[in-house]
Amino acid sequence: MALPETTEEVSRILALAYEEEFPVIPRGAGTATTGAPLAAEGGLVLSFTRMNRILEIHPQDLVAVVEPGVVNAHLKEALAQRGLFYPPDPASFRFSTVGGNVATCAGGPRGLKYGVTRDYVLALEVVLPGGRVLSLGTRTLKGVMGYDLTRLLVGSEGTLAVFTRITLKVLPLPPARATLAAGFSSEAAALEAMQEVLSAGLLPAAAEFMDQVTLRAVEFEPEEIRGLLLFEFDGAETAVKEEIGRAADLLRPRALFLREARGPQAEGLWELRRSISPALKKLGSRRFADDVVLPRSRLATFLQQARQLSRTHGLPLAAFGHAGDGNLHLNLLFDPPQEPRARELRREILELVLELSGTLSGEHGVGLTKRAFLPAEITPEALELMRQLKRIFDPKGLLNPGKIFPPEGV
Ligand SMILES: Cc1cc2nc3c(=O)[nH]c(=O)nc-3n(C[C@H](O)[C@H](O)[C@H](O)COP(=O)(O)OP(=O)(O)OC[C@H]3O[C@@H](n4cnc5c(N)ncnc54)[C@H](O)[C@@H]3O)c2cc1C
């Protein structure tokens, strides 16, 4: 493993890798759920642990400049002290890095109102395979000079270039924030109620959903609650009060319980949301974790049909996540002897997503675990164009090899 401290060192490592022809695998905190930062075929892991400085925060320009190893939460804390806000909030924000977030185009609950990492990356300093250093993008909030290579690199999973400096757009910190939790007797009732709130001209920062399997895994009580919604509203205090009141009025007729929370109480509810992933371990020693996105109007239909498939195969399926923007985290739990059945169930569920005009990943990316499904969603022509782009950036195929693309001929 290499632990560079400067762009110059990264450049020298990538130059040496090209000369000696060994693979290089960029790595942030290693939290990707897709195997994207794994040295699956060997090679040198390029860790950004030591490039973790916040270089600049500029309140007038609404810009922050960071090294890639800065932990998302550390940036949020530093900005909050200046009255500023960096919205992208993957549930891993306490430990994942901005570099990893940019390379996966990470999202989070607040994506509903604020968008995802892509919407905040203004400029990148990158090192190309071979060692050339390049500056892309602008420090301004707008800019359309030439092709948008910055955006091409956001979400490229460390396969095209290595980021050494990241310029981000930031926002003023909303002065008030409140959470509204609502429990329902069924998953369908929860999803219908969410649609009602989001169709009433309200735009919460977040609208999260937990299904019955998830609620039992996190030991949520009472057991009659089979679908839970968590909303966050932010903005001026008067606006938050008014919006949360309107949302509560819409939810009250169907909800079995309704609770408004602020401060530590609200944080407790969001901690519950963040505790899901470890809690699901008790339902099976292995899992297939996907993060599909459906058009929001089709979420309920999808969940009902996916639940039916999971019953047919006799394996538990947990669905939770950013339902407000149609993004569901699906965890299919199983023990090793059940793996063939689990694989088949996963295939059927992912096919269902595509049939309903969805996409197979909203924020986690492809890595190793979804590469076999890329041709199911991307046309052969688009896939070939992507392969050509990879060859332009990385002619020897040495940067994070084996990720995103299925092996040739598959
Ligand atoms: C409990 C948990 C909850 C999660 N919740 C969410 C969520 O809500 N939303 C979400 O989007 N994701 C989520 N994730 C997935 C993961 O945290 C994100 O993908 C995150 O962005 C990865 O950041 P990282 O620093 O761990 O990067 P890594 O996992 O180390 O790397 C991810 C990718 O980025 C590349 N990379 C890293 N640094 C660089 C660099 N400097 N230059 C070029 N490429 C680089 C790597 O090669 C790899 O392809 C979750 C993961 C866990 C474990």
Structural write-up:
With 410 residues, this protein is an alpha+beta fold. The chain has three domains: 7-172, Uridine Diphospho-n-acetylenolpyruvylglucosamine Reductase, domain 3; 176-277, Alpha-Beta Plaits (2-Layer Sandwich); 284-355, Alpha-Beta Plaits, CATH 3.30.70. 34% of the residues lie in helices and 22% in strands. The protein is built from 14 helices and 16 strands. The strands form four sheets. It has a seven-stranded antiparallel sheet, with helices on both faces. It has a five-stranded antiparallel sheet with strand order 3-4-8-6-7. A two-stranded parallel sheet has the order 1-2. Helix 6 packs across helix 8 (237-251) and helix 11 packs antiparallel against helix 12. The radius of gyration is 22 Å and the shape is globular. The structure holds flavin-adenine dinucleotide. Residues 25-33, 36-37, 48, 68, 90-92, 96-97, 99-101, 103-104, 106-108, 157-158, 162-163, 277, 363-364, 400 line the site of flavin-adenine dinucleotide (FAD).
Total beta-strand segments: 16
How many domains make up the coordinates?
Answer: 3
Sequence stretches where pLDDT stays below 50 over 5 or more residues: none
Which of globular, elongated, flat, extended, rod-shaped describes the shape?
Answer: globular
Reported CATH architecture of the largest domain: 2-Layer Sandwich
β-strand percent reads 15-25%
CATH fold category name of the largest domain: Uridine Diphospho-n-acetylenolpyruvylglucosamine Reductase, domain 3
